[in-house]
């Protein structure tokens, strides 16, 4: 039985997961889990990528028999590499405040609708294109190569520099029509396209482990490293266990990525206006989706309570939140004030206070407000999805860590009036490993065989809508009319 190692780096934790391939399905088991967080130094927010690297090496050590390794992570962020092949400083976190002004500057010199039609990518401040426009010129001058975070780890594992296609699409620098770098855009962002290298097809075998990595992990140089679907959302969507047509997905973790898979992009003004994006999926598919600020609001609240000395058990908190009255006060999770790390319960209270709603006091009340608001935001995104594609959404798959959040899954079903199929919770690792399995020929090629293996590997939990959607409709209208200030 072949073992594949899926390294999955999220914004709040990383994992090494072993996937055992047999009888056309993959069985996952967690080998190691380690925390991740952004670190602020002198007004800049960084990732501790060397700490992550050390945790990945530790996590791989028990997997001496791994046939392959694939690395995925959150999108858009990158390390810069100098002429000697060394990393220039720590990667900057996409939540750093430098990006929004750079985005506004770059958009001012162009037609935003035209740019959206060229790349298909929503103008999120954190897109790599805007991060580069905000980059320190001395770092850029010293850089020979840019590597997105999973490609950086792939380089450290193998010595080979790649730029895997699903994650490349999130840079906002890829021409939607040709699938290659938009050279004019690269120059507008202040870089030569050569800095980015050429785009590597998803599923390419990068090579074996460097001797120093084999020695540090006990793995052999026979272990292959595969450029898996290295954007975590692409990997998660590759593992959605669809049961039929008319299904949307919510890849729910730090973010809720709400969308459908399509053959063609949607780059209308209405899609731009509604905040949708067209990212590249495995097999060249399009992930037409909207970023909704997801469990970030809850995770940051838990971190704030921990800093205040409150040790809150998540399961108990969710139970208390479920027992609290529904839709007492709601926030727009996408309000920019919630984007940066900090005192999330305080910001939620301020929002409710400003908008004349009851102010949530206890952690359970704050959690109820966050989860109600997320279910409502899911509803808004699903409604927009139907309107923009002209295709009905009948069922919703919630995959990722949020699949274990029972109240959120149930309230998403209640708010949307649709059945929610919850799971797998480790969809990202499953998708990562499925792409590896296909690259090694352990599963037949193509999306149909991958879907069949995904469905055989997962048993989603079914949430049917309870009660009327009326209270959610009312809350959605109420939210639209709230007098929201700028902070
Ligand atoms: C989710 C994710 C998402 C991106 C964001 C930066 O982890 O990759 O798809 O938009 O992080």
Automatic annotation (TrEMBL):
Gene3D superfamilies: 3.30.420.40. One of its GO terms (molecular function) is ATP binding. GO terms for biological process: rhamnose catabolic process. InterPro entries: ATPase_NBD, FGGY_C, FGGY_Carb_Kinase, FGGY_N, Rhamnulokinase. Keywords: ATP-binding, Carbohydrate metabolism, Kinase, Nucleotide-binding, Rhamnose metabolism, Transferase, Xylose metabolism. Residues 478-487 have a biased composition (Polar residues). It comes from the Bacteria. Residues 453-487 are annotated as: Disordered. This is Rhamnulokinase. It comes from Glycomyces harbinensis.
């Amino acid at each position: 039985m072949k073992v594949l190692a899926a390294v999955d780096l999220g914004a709040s934790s990383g994992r090494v997961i072993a996937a055992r391939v047999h009888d056309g399905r993959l069985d996952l088991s967690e080998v190691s889990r380690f925390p991740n967080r952004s670190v602020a130094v002198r007004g800049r927010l960084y990732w501790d990528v060397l700490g992550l690297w050390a945790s990945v090496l530790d996590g791989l050590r028990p997997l001496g028999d791994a046939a392959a390794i694939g690395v995925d992570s959150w999108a858009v962020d990158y390390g810069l590499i100098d002429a000697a092949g060394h990393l220039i400083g720590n990667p900057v976190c996409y939540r750093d405040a430098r990006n929004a002004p750079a985005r506004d500057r770059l958009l001012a010199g162009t037609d935003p609708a035209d740019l959206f039609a060229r790349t298909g990518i929503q103008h999120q401040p954190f897109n790599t294109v805007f991060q580069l426009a905000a980059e320190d010129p001395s770092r850029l001058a010293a850089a020979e190569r840019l590597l997105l975070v999973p490609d950086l780890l792939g380089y450290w594992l193998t010595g080979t520099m790649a730029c895997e296609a699903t994650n490349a699409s999130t840079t906002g620098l890829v021409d939607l029509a040709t699938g290659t770098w938009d050279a004019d855009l690269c120059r507008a962002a202040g870089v030569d396209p050569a800095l980015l290298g050429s785009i590597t097809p998803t599923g390419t075998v990068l090579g074996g482990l460097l001797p120093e990595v084999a020695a540090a992990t006990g793995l052999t140089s026979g272990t292959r490293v595969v450029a898996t679907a290295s954007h975590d959302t692409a990997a998660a969507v590759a593992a959605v266990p669809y049961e039929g047509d008319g299904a949307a997905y919510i890849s729910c973790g730090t973010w809720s990525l709400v969308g459908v898979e399509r053959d063609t992009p949607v780059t209308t003004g209405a899609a731009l206006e509604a905040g949708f994006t067209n990212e590249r999926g495995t097999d060249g598919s399009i992930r037409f989706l909207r970023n909704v600020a997801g469990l970030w609001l809850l995770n940051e609240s838990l971190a704030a309570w921990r800093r205040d000395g409150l040790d809150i058990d998540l399961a108990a908190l969710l139970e208390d939140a479920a027992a609290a009255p529904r839709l007492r006060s709601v926030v727009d999770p996408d309000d920019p004030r919630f984007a940066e790390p900090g005192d999330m319960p305080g910001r939620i209270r301020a929002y409710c206070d400003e908008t004349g709603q009851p102010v949530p006091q206890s952690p359970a009340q704050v959690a109820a407000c966050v989860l109600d608001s997320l279910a409502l935001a899911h509803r808004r995104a699903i409604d927009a999805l139907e309107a923009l594609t002209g295709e009905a959404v009948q069922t919703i798959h919630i995959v990722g860590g949020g699949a274990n959040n029972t109240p959120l899954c149930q309230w998403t079903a209640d708010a949307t009036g649709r059945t929610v199929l919850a799971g797998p919770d480790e969809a990202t690792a499953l998708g990562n490993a499925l792409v590896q399995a296909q690259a090694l020929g352990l599963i037949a090629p193509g999306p149909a065989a991958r879907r069949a293996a995904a469905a055989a590997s997962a048993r989603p939990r079914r949430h049917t809508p309870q009660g009327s959607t009326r209270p959610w409709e009312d809350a959605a209208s109420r939210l639209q009319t709230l007098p929201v200030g700028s902070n």
